[in-house]
Amino acid sequence: MNGRRTASVCPVCLRRVPAKRVRRGGAWVLEKTCPEHGDFSAVVWRGSEDIDSWTGALPEYGAEEGLRCPEGCGLCDRHLRKSCCVLLEVTGRCNLRCRFCFADGGSGGDPDGELLRARIDDIVKKAGAPLLQLSGGEPTLRDDLPELAAHAKRAGCSFVQVNTNGLRLAADPGYVRALAEAGTDIVFLQFDGVRDDIYETLRGRPLLRVKEAAIEACAKNGIGVTLVPTLVPGVNTDQIGALVRYAAAHTPAVRGVHFQPVSWFGRVPSPPKDKDRYTLGELIDALVEQTGGAITRESLIPSACDHPLCGLHGEYIALPGGRLEPLTKRGEAAESCCGARDSAERNRNYIGKRWSGAGDACCCDDADPHSLDGFLLWKRAHGFTVSAMAFQDAGNLDVERLRRCSLHVCRDGRLLPFCAAYLTGYAP
Hints:
The chain is built from 13 helices and 17 strands. By secondary structure, it is an alpha/beta fold. It has one domain (about 85-390): TIM Barrel. Strand 12 and strand 13 form a beta hairpin.
Protein backbone atom coordinates (compact mmCIF):
# COMPACT_ATOMS: atom_id res chain seq x y z
CA MET A 1 0.00 0.00 0.00
CA ASN A 2 1.55 3.30 -1.13
CA GLY A 3 1.27 6.32 1.15
CA ARG A 4 1.28 6.52 4.93
CA ARG A 5 -0.71 3.68 6.46
CA THR A 6 -3.21 4.27 9.24
CA ALA A 7 -6.81 3.37 10.07
CA SER A 8 -10.04 5.33 9.93
CA VAL A 9 -13.79 4.69 9.85
CA CYS A 10 -16.41 4.42 7.15
CA PRO A 11 -18.18 7.79 7.24
CA VAL A 12 -21.53 6.06 6.81
CA CYS A 13 -21.52 3.07 9.19
CA LEU A 14 -18.46 4.08 11.32
CA ARG A 15 -16.90 0.64 10.79
CA ARG A 16 -13.12 0.68 11.31
CA VAL A 17 -11.30 0.39 7.97
CA PRO A 18 -7.67 0.58 6.78
CA ALA A 19 -6.69 3.98 5.40
CA LYS A 20 -3.71 5.76 3.90
CA ARG A 21 -2.61 9.37 3.60
CA VAL A 22 -1.45 10.14 0.07
CA ARG A 23 -0.61 13.14 -2.08
CA ARG A 24 -3.11 13.98 -4.80
CA GLY A 25 -2.18 17.02 -6.89
CA GLY A 26 -1.34 19.86 -4.52
CA ALA A 27 -3.09 18.35 -1.50
CA TRP A 28 -2.82 15.42 0.89
CA VAL A 29 -5.91 13.24 1.26
CA LEU A 30 -7.01 10.36 3.46
CA GLU A 31 -8.27 7.45 1.35
CA LYS A 32 -10.22 4.42 2.58
CA THR A 33 -12.66 1.75 1.45
CA CYS A 34 -15.63 0.26 3.30
CA PRO A 35 -16.62 -3.25 2.10
CA GLU A 36 -20.27 -2.21 2.26
CA HIS A 37 -20.32 1.49 1.33
CA GLY A 38 -17.38 1.84 -1.05
CA ASP A 39 -14.50 4.27 -1.51
CA PHE A 40 -14.04 7.58 0.31
CA SER A 41 -11.43 10.29 0.48
CA ALA A 42 -11.09 13.57 2.36
CA VAL A 43 -8.52 16.33 2.10
CA VAL A 44 -6.37 16.62 5.22
CA TRP A 45 -3.71 19.17 4.20
CA ARG A 46 -3.48 22.02 1.70
CA GLY A 47 -1.13 24.98 1.56
CA SER A 48 2.46 25.99 0.96
CA GLU A 49 3.78 24.39 4.16
CA ASP A 50 5.42 21.01 3.58
CA ILE A 51 3.46 18.42 5.55
CA ASP A 52 6.51 16.24 6.27
CA SER A 53 8.48 19.19 7.62
CA TRP A 54 5.51 20.10 9.81
CA THR A 55 4.93 16.63 11.26
CA GLY A 56 8.53 15.48 11.55
CA ALA A 57 9.48 11.82 11.72
CA LEU A 58 6.64 9.95 13.41
CA PRO A 59 6.03 6.19 13.35
CA GLU A 60 3.01 4.74 11.56
CA TYR A 61 1.20 3.95 14.79
CA GLY A 62 -2.31 4.11 13.40
CA ALA A 63 -2.09 0.87 11.46
CA GLU A 64 -0.99 -1.41 14.32
CA GLU A 65 -2.74 -4.72 14.79
CA GLY A 66 -4.98 -5.18 17.80
CA LEU A 67 -6.02 -1.54 18.20
CA ARG A 68 -9.64 -0.92 19.14
CA CYS A 69 -9.74 2.76 18.13
CA PRO A 70 -12.21 4.33 17.92
CA GLU A 71 -14.91 1.75 18.65
CA GLY A 72 -13.31 0.74 21.95
CA CYS A 73 -12.04 4.17 23.01
CA GLY A 74 -11.77 5.03 26.67
CA LEU A 75 -8.06 5.71 27.21
CA CYS A 76 -6.84 2.14 27.03
CA ASP A 77 -3.24 1.20 27.80
CA ARG A 78 -2.36 1.80 24.12
CA HIS A 79 -3.48 5.43 24.17
CA LEU A 80 -0.37 7.61 24.00
CA ARG A 81 -1.39 10.69 26.00
CA LYS A 82 -2.77 11.45 29.45
CA SER A 83 -5.48 14.03 30.01
CA CYS A 84 -4.39 17.64 29.67
CA CYS A 85 -7.92 19.05 29.42
CA VAL A 86 -11.21 17.29 30.21
CA LEU A 87 -14.58 18.48 28.90
CA LEU A 88 -17.72 17.91 30.96
CA GLU A 89 -21.14 18.56 29.43
CA VAL A 90 -23.31 20.19 32.12
CA THR A 91 -26.42 20.74 29.98
CA GLY A 92 -27.94 19.77 26.66
CA ARG A 93 -29.94 23.02 26.48
CA CYS A 94 -28.88 25.99 24.35
CA ASN A 95 -30.17 29.50 23.65
CA LEU A 96 -28.93 29.46 20.05
CA ARG A 97 -29.49 27.10 17.15
CA CYS A 98 -26.17 27.23 15.37
CA ARG A 99 -25.65 25.92 11.87
CA PHE A 100 -22.68 23.86 13.10
CA CYS A 101 -22.59 22.34 16.61
CA PHE A 102 -20.40 19.38 17.56
CA ALA A 103 -22.63 18.69 20.59
CA ASP A 104 -25.92 19.23 18.69
CA GLY A 105 -26.92 21.59 21.51
CA GLY A 106 -30.53 22.38 22.26
CA SER A 107 -31.90 18.84 22.27
CA GLY A 108 -31.30 17.78 25.89
CA GLY A 109 -31.79 18.72 29.51
CA ASP A 110 -29.68 19.27 32.62
CA PRO A 111 -27.94 16.46 34.48
CA ASP A 112 -28.48 16.58 38.23
CA GLY A 113 -26.02 18.81 40.09
CA GLU A 114 -25.07 16.06 42.51
CA LEU A 115 -24.29 13.74 39.59
CA LEU A 116 -22.09 16.41 37.98
CA ARG A 117 -20.18 16.99 41.21
CA ALA A 118 -19.56 13.25 41.44
CA ARG A 119 -18.31 13.24 37.86
CA ILE A 120 -15.95 16.10 38.62
CA ASP A 121 -14.56 14.13 41.56
CA ASP A 122 -14.12 11.10 39.31
CA ILE A 123 -12.37 13.21 36.64
CA VAL A 124 -9.85 14.42 39.20
CA LYS A 125 -9.33 10.85 40.42
CA LYS A 126 -8.69 9.61 36.86
CA ALA A 127 -6.83 12.60 35.38
CA GLY A 128 -5.05 14.21 38.32
CA ALA A 129 -5.62 17.96 38.25
CA PRO A 130 -6.82 18.68 34.71
CA LEU A 131 -7.94 21.88 33.11
CA LEU A 132 -11.71 21.28 33.32
CA GLN A 133 -13.93 22.62 30.55
CA LEU A 134 -17.55 23.13 31.59
CA SER A 135 -19.47 22.84 28.35
CA GLY A 136 -22.81 21.93 26.85
CA GLY A 137 -25.10 22.87 25.14
CA GLU A 138 -24.76 26.32 26.62
CA PRO A 139 -23.43 25.88 30.17
CA THR A 140 -24.42 29.37 31.37
CA LEU A 141 -28.08 28.33 31.18
CA ARG A 142 -27.43 26.55 34.49
CA ASP A 143 -27.95 28.88 37.44
CA ASP A 144 -25.69 26.64 39.53
CA LEU A 145 -22.71 26.83 37.14
CA PRO A 146 -20.73 28.97 39.64
CA GLU A 147 -21.29 26.29 42.28
CA LEU A 148 -19.99 23.63 39.88
CA ALA A 149 -16.92 25.76 39.13
CA ALA A 150 -16.27 26.21 42.84
CA HIS A 151 -16.62 22.48 43.43
CA ALA A 152 -14.14 21.77 40.63
CA LYS A 153 -11.57 24.04 42.25
CA ARG A 154 -12.11 22.43 45.66
CA ALA A 155 -11.83 18.97 44.09
CA GLY A 156 -8.41 19.81 42.67
CA CYS A 157 -8.89 20.97 39.06
CA SER A 158 -5.95 23.21 38.24
CA PHE A 159 -7.99 25.52 35.99
CA VAL A 160 -11.70 25.88 35.25
CA GLN A 161 -12.84 26.99 31.81
CA VAL A 162 -16.37 27.81 30.61
CA ASN A 163 -17.12 27.21 26.91
CA THR A 164 -19.87 29.70 26.03
CA ASN A 165 -21.61 31.76 23.38
CA GLY A 166 -21.49 34.70 25.81
CA LEU A 167 -25.17 35.69 25.72
CA ARG A 168 -25.75 35.43 29.46
CA LEU A 169 -22.35 36.89 30.31
CA ALA A 170 -23.25 39.99 28.31
CA ALA A 171 -26.65 40.39 30.00
CA ASP A 172 -26.08 39.33 33.62
CA PRO A 173 -23.15 41.03 35.40
CA GLY A 174 -24.02 39.36 38.70
CA TYR A 175 -23.67 35.94 37.10
CA VAL A 176 -20.22 36.83 35.73
CA ARG A 177 -19.18 38.07 39.16
CA ALA A 178 -20.37 34.80 40.71
CA LEU A 179 -18.34 32.79 38.19
CA ALA A 180 -15.26 34.84 39.01
CA GLU A 181 -15.76 34.47 42.76
CA ALA A 182 -16.15 30.70 42.26
CA GLY A 183 -12.67 30.56 40.71
CA THR A 184 -13.46 30.43 36.98
CA ASP A 185 -10.18 31.10 35.19
CA ILE A 186 -11.00 31.12 31.50
CA VAL A 187 -13.92 31.85 29.20
CA PHE A 188 -13.69 30.20 25.79
CA LEU A 189 -15.91 32.62 23.87
CA GLN A 190 -17.53 31.66 20.57
CA PHE A 191 -16.35 34.55 18.35
CA ASP A 192 -16.53 33.97 14.60
CA GLY A 193 -15.59 37.37 13.17
CA VAL A 194 -15.84 41.12 13.41
CA ARG A 195 -18.87 41.46 11.10
CA ASP A 196 -22.47 40.73 12.04
CA ASP A 197 -23.32 39.01 8.74
CA ILE A 198 -21.00 36.17 9.83
CA TYR A 199 -23.02 35.62 13.00
CA GLU A 200 -26.28 35.80 11.06
CA THR A 201 -25.00 33.02 8.80
CA LEU A 202 -23.49 30.74 11.46
CA ARG A 203 -25.50 31.60 14.58
CA GLY A 204 -28.80 32.89 13.23
CA ARG A 205 -28.63 36.47 14.50
CA PRO A 206 -26.29 39.49 14.75
CA LEU A 207 -24.16 39.00 17.85
CA LEU A 208 -21.01 41.11 17.60
CA ARG A 209 -22.11 43.70 20.19
CA VAL A 210 -23.21 40.89 22.52
CA LYS A 211 -19.79 39.25 22.23
CA GLU A 212 -18.07 42.55 23.00
CA ALA A 213 -20.24 43.06 26.06
CA ALA A 214 -19.32 39.56 27.27
CA ILE A 215 -15.61 40.38 26.91
CA GLU A 216 -16.08 43.60 28.88
CA ALA A 217 -17.94 41.79 31.66
CA CYS A 218 -15.22 39.17 31.98
CA ALA A 219 -12.49 41.84 32.00
CA LYS A 220 -14.20 43.68 34.86
CA ASN A 221 -14.14 40.47 36.88
CA GLY A 222 -10.65 39.25 36.06
CA ILE A 223 -11.67 36.25 33.94
CA GLY A 224 -9.41 35.66 30.94
CA VAL A 225 -11.11 35.44 27.54
CA THR A 226 -9.93 33.42 24.56
CA LEU A 227 -11.78 34.05 21.29
CA VAL A 228 -12.83 30.84 19.52
CA PRO A 229 -13.76 31.20 15.84
CA THR A 230 -15.20 28.29 13.89
CA LEU A 231 -13.64 28.69 10.43
CA VAL A 232 -16.05 27.88 7.60
CA PRO A 233 -14.92 28.29 3.96
CA GLY A 234 -16.96 30.92 2.15
CA VAL A 235 -18.15 32.43 5.43
CA ASN A 236 -15.27 33.73 7.55
CA THR A 237 -11.91 32.38 6.43
CA ASP A 238 -11.19 35.91 5.18
CA GLN A 239 -11.50 37.12 8.79
CA ILE A 240 -8.42 35.39 10.21
CA GLY A 241 -6.20 38.47 10.13
CA ALA A 242 -9.00 40.72 11.38
CA LEU A 243 -9.62 38.37 14.31
CA VAL A 244 -5.95 38.39 15.31
CA ARG A 245 -5.83 42.19 15.12
CA TYR A 246 -9.05 42.57 17.10
CA ALA A 247 -7.89 40.19 19.82
CA ALA A 248 -4.42 41.72 20.11
CA ALA A 249 -5.92 45.21 20.39
CA HIS A 250 -8.09 44.02 23.30
CA THR A 251 -5.34 42.61 25.50
CA PRO A 252 -5.14 42.16 28.44
CA ALA A 253 -8.88 41.33 28.52
CA VAL A 254 -8.44 38.95 25.57
CA ARG A 255 -5.63 36.45 26.02
CA GLY A 256 -5.60 34.95 22.54
CA VAL A 257 -7.44 33.42 19.59
CA HIS A 258 -8.05 29.68 19.29
CA PHE A 259 -9.06 28.85 15.71
CA GLN A 260 -11.17 25.77 15.01
CA PRO A 261 -11.48 24.81 11.33
CA VAL A 262 -15.00 23.46 10.93
CA SER A 263 -15.47 19.75 11.58
CA TRP A 264 -18.40 17.80 10.31
CA PHE A 265 -19.89 16.04 13.31
CA GLY A 266 -22.84 16.65 15.57
CA ARG A 267 -25.19 19.10 13.83
CA VAL A 268 -24.01 20.01 10.30
CA PRO A 269 -25.91 21.24 7.23
CA SER A 270 -24.89 18.33 4.95
CA PRO A 271 -22.01 15.90 4.35
CA PRO A 272 -18.87 17.81 3.32
CA LYS A 273 -16.98 17.96 0.05
CA ASP A 274 -13.30 18.87 -0.04
CA LYS A 275 -14.17 22.48 -0.88
CA ASP A 276 -16.06 22.66 2.43
CA ARG A 277 -12.99 21.76 4.50
CA TYR A 278 -10.29 24.09 5.81
CA THR A 279 -6.97 22.51 6.75
CA LEU A 280 -4.24 23.47 9.17
CA GLY A 281 -1.88 24.12 6.26
CA GLU A 282 -4.28 26.69 4.81
CA LEU A 283 -4.63 28.34 8.21
CA ILE A 284 -0.85 28.73 8.53
CA ASP A 285 -0.72 30.51 5.17
CA ALA A 286 -3.69 32.72 6.07
CA LEU A 287 -2.24 33.72 9.44
CA VAL A 288 0.92 34.95 7.76
CA GLU A 289 -0.74 36.57 4.74
CA GLN A 290 -3.76 38.16 6.40
CA THR A 291 -1.73 39.69 9.25
CA GLY A 292 0.78 41.17 6.80
CA GLY A 293 3.55 39.16 8.42
CA ALA A 294 2.74 40.23 12.00
CA ILE A 295 2.36 36.49 12.57
CA THR A 296 5.52 34.95 11.17
CA ARG A 297 5.59 31.43 9.82
CA GLU A 298 8.55 30.58 12.08
CA SER A 299 6.59 31.59 15.21
CA LEU A 300 3.91 28.94 14.61
CA ILE A 301 4.76 25.62 16.25
CA PRO A 302 3.13 22.24 15.54
CA SER A 303 1.59 20.43 18.45
CA ALA A 304 3.64 17.65 19.97
CA CYS A 305 1.38 17.29 22.98
CA ASP A 306 -1.22 16.04 20.51
CA HIS A 307 -0.43 15.05 16.93
CA PRO A 308 1.19 17.77 14.76
CA LEU A 309 -1.76 17.57 12.35
CA CYS A 310 -4.12 18.36 15.24
CA GLY A 311 -2.96 21.81 16.17
CA LEU A 312 -0.59 24.75 16.18
CA HIS A 313 0.51 27.34 18.68
CA GLY A 314 2.35 30.64 18.77
CA GLU A 315 3.06 32.98 21.68
CA TYR A 316 3.51 36.74 21.35
CA ILE A 317 3.49 40.06 23.15
CA ALA A 318 0.93 42.50 21.81
CA LEU A 319 2.83 45.78 21.54
CA PRO A 320 1.42 49.28 20.89
CA GLY A 321 0.55 50.01 17.30
CA GLY A 322 -0.59 46.47 16.56
CA ARG A 323 2.86 44.89 16.43
CA LEU A 324 3.25 41.33 17.72
CA GLU A 325 6.58 40.32 19.21
CA PRO A 326 7.00 36.54 18.80
CA LEU A 327 8.20 34.53 21.79
CA THR A 328 8.14 31.15 20.04
CA LYS A 329 10.28 29.99 17.14
CA ARG A 330 10.00 26.74 15.29
CA GLY A 331 12.87 24.39 15.95
CA GLU A 332 13.81 25.94 19.27
CA ALA A 333 13.02 24.35 22.63
CA ALA A 334 10.37 26.30 24.50
CA GLU A 335 8.25 26.05 27.61
CA SER A 336 5.23 25.21 25.58
CA CYS A 337 2.15 23.06 25.59
CA CYS A 338 3.62 21.78 22.34
CA GLY A 339 6.99 20.77 23.74
CA ALA A 340 7.78 17.15 23.02
CA ARG A 341 8.96 16.40 26.55
CA ASP A 342 6.09 18.11 28.37
CA SER A 343 3.91 16.07 30.69
CA ALA A 344 0.12 16.51 30.85
CA GLU A 345 0.62 18.54 34.04
CA ARG A 346 3.08 20.90 32.38
CA ASN A 347 0.86 21.22 29.30
CA ARG A 348 -2.23 22.20 31.27
CA ASN A 349 -0.30 24.66 33.42
CA TYR A 350 1.15 26.30 30.34
CA ILE A 351 -2.28 26.63 28.71
CA GLY A 352 -4.06 27.72 31.86
CA LYS A 353 -1.59 30.39 32.88
CA ARG A 354 -1.62 32.01 29.45
CA TRP A 355 -5.38 31.90 28.95
CA SER A 356 -6.53 32.71 32.48
CA GLY A 357 -6.91 36.06 34.24
CA ALA A 358 -7.29 39.46 32.65
CA GLY A 359 -3.60 40.22 33.13
CA ASP A 360 -1.88 42.75 35.31
CA ALA A 361 -3.28 45.96 33.89
CA CYS A 362 -1.85 48.11 36.72
CA CYS A 363 0.56 50.67 35.26
CA CYS A 364 1.84 48.68 32.30
CA ASP A 365 -0.03 50.76 29.75
CA ASP A 366 2.08 53.74 30.83
CA ALA A 367 5.32 51.77 30.70
CA ASP A 368 7.78 52.02 27.83
CA PRO A 369 7.73 48.54 26.23
CA HIS A 370 11.15 49.25 24.69
CA SER A 371 12.82 49.41 28.11
CA LEU A 372 13.63 46.18 29.95
CA ASP A 373 11.27 46.85 32.88
CA GLY A 374 8.54 48.05 30.57
CA PHE A 375 8.94 45.03 28.30
CA LEU A 376 8.58 42.66 31.24
CA LEU A 377 5.42 44.45 32.38
CA TRP A 378 3.96 44.27 28.89
CA LYS A 379 4.92 40.61 28.57
CA ARG A 380 3.03 39.79 31.74
CA ALA A 381 -0.08 41.84 30.96
CA HIS A 382 -0.19 41.66 27.16
CA GLY A 383 0.92 38.10 26.55
CA PHE A 384 -1.04 36.81 23.60
CA THR A 385 -1.49 33.37 22.05
CA VAL A 386 -2.58 32.21 18.62
CA SER A 387 -3.55 28.55 18.54
CA ALA A 388 -5.70 26.13 16.60
CA MET A 389 -7.26 22.72 16.93
CA ALA A 390 -8.28 20.83 13.79
CA PHE A 391 -10.86 18.33 15.04
CA GLN A 392 -11.54 15.13 13.09
CA ASP A 393 -14.86 13.79 11.85
CA ALA A 394 -15.97 10.56 10.21
CA GLY A 395 -14.60 11.68 6.85
CA ASN A 396 -11.04 12.47 7.88
CA LEU A 397 -10.55 10.59 11.17
CA ASP A 398 -7.03 9.19 11.47
CA VAL A 399 -6.33 6.72 14.28
CA GLU A 400 -2.69 7.82 14.34
CA ARG A 401 -3.90 11.27 15.42
CA LEU A 402 -6.60 9.93 17.73
CA ARG A 403 -4.11 7.93 19.80
CA ARG A 404 -2.23 11.13 20.73
CA CYS A 405 -5.29 13.12 21.83
CA SER A 406 -4.96 14.86 25.23
CA LEU A 407 -8.36 16.62 25.13
CA HIS A 408 -10.80 14.17 26.64
CA VAL A 409 -14.56 14.12 27.19
CA CYS A 410 -16.15 12.68 30.32
CA ARG A 411 -18.88 10.36 29.09
CA ASP A 412 -20.68 7.81 31.29
CA GLY A 413 -17.75 7.45 33.66
CA ARG A 414 -15.16 7.11 30.88
CA LEU A 415 -12.66 9.59 29.45
CA LEU A 416 -12.83 9.57 25.65
CA PRO A 417 -10.69 11.34 23.04
CA PHE A 418 -12.71 14.36 21.91
CA CYS A 419 -13.08 13.31 18.27
CA ALA A 420 -14.16 9.79 19.25
CA ALA A 421 -16.71 11.12 21.73
CA TYR A 422 -18.50 13.26 19.14
CA LEU A 423 -18.03 11.02 16.11
CA THR A 424 -21.19 10.84 13.98
CA GLY A 425 -21.82 9.16 10.63
CA TYR A 426 -23.13 10.69 7.43
CA ALA A 427 -26.39 9.60 5.83
CA PRO A 428 -25.73 7.20 2.90
